[in-house]
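Retro notes - structure team

What went well: the batch runner handled both jobs without manual restarts.
What didn't: labels got mixed up in the shared folder, which is why I'm recording both outputs here explicitly, each with its sequence directly above its tokens.

Job 1
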Amino acid sequence: KITYAISNIMSQKIVSVDVGATLGDAMQQMVDNEIGSVVVTREDGIAGILTERDILKCFCADTQAAGKPAGDVMSHPLVTVDESAAIGQAADMMAEKKIRRLLVTATGTVCGIVTERDLMRATLDVFNKLSDAWV
């Protein structure tokens, strides 16, 4: 049986912006770090996640939205997955919720992020290992 825990494929690097940061600042963080989302934080912890999709929807309604606060546009509440969950569970959650990213938690604390791309790579790795086993 081949099982991959999310902890094995997640990224531990989480880029964040403050809830009051502008969309322009958040987008610059995404560009600088070559990522598709940033976690939005406030004094008491994580407030939400701001994704490319969130920004696109906002700019479709208001082409001058670069000055809007990230907290006004972010997705929330957060959808999380435990680090011990299998990749299949994470994929099911993403499909069900129609999202592309999950924050990963360990004992209730965010410790990473997993994306659709991470899941595709892990799935491809499983298929490669299975095909090698049958050769």
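Job 2
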Amino acid sequence: TCAATLRRLFELKLSLPCLDAICDPANVDTRQESEEEIRRCVIIAHTLHVPFVRLRATGGDIAQVRRTLDAVLPAAREQGVTLLMETTGPFSDTGVLRDLLDSYADDSLAALWDMYSPYFLAKEPPEKTVENLGAYIRHVHVKDAVTTGNTTAFCLIGEGELPMDEMMAALRSLNYDGYFSLEW
């Protein structure tokens, strides 16, 4: 149960910073399922005192993302949970994500900086990501890779091409003191 999980985490002096909604808020065909999944995650996050729920749009239908957000943001606000749109898919270009976040200007909606996608897919330097997203960044995912032609091979952090020193300097410029999730 949620209560037992919360108690066990407390005993272990652990906390969960973020839950992942397993859905695509950009997918028109699964709109209803996505909204239900996000609402479930928001309720669980509230119950477990988890501040964030991650949303990952893989498709490019920004209008559908807006419809999904319009439907689920009231629940996030009510539960005191912040939805984090990940910098992947159409939001690998963090200017697109900034425009979305600016249009809502809602404390219940912010950004999850997946360092890989803006850098490797959108060819965006870390300074540009921070310029675009700034204080919207509430959580960070880190994974490294090596690219050869059209092939990407993930590797241990520091063994790839991700400019970690520049990434950390960009976050320091924001006085970021949040969590990092290491991904493979």
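One thing worth noting from job 2: The chain has seven helices and eight strands.
We'll revisit the folder naming next retro.
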